[in-house]
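quick one before i forget lol
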Amino acid sequence: MNKHRLALQIRFNDIDMLGHVNNVMFGHYCDAGRYGFMRDIMPHNMDFMNDHKVLILVHTEFDFMVPCFITDQLFVETTLEKTGEKSVHLIQEIVDDKGLVRVRSRSVMSTYDKKTGKSFPVPKEWIP
């Protein structure tokens, strides 16, 4: 199973009034992790940014387990959970430098053809 790990930079404006990383920021962190996963793990002959056949985010869910603070060293780990007929399902975990899972996210990306406006079966060559 391919796992991608990306170090995160927590910025001052990521912090809420309680000193925690604001929950909204984890969506941004997972976006960066998904991009890194697609760039580094998915087949390298794909150009997700410029091709007319792409993957788009259609569902996300988050479980917030342990608060995160500006002094934490955090990583987003992205793993392919499964592929559907027209979708790719990912699990992402925000972990600290000791391996403690702080946030867990599941997301679904659907195939999308920008020319037709429709989804299509996931090509076998897209599966790592």
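fyi Residues 3-126 form a domain with the Thiol Ester Dehydrase; Chain A fold (CATH 3.10.129.10).
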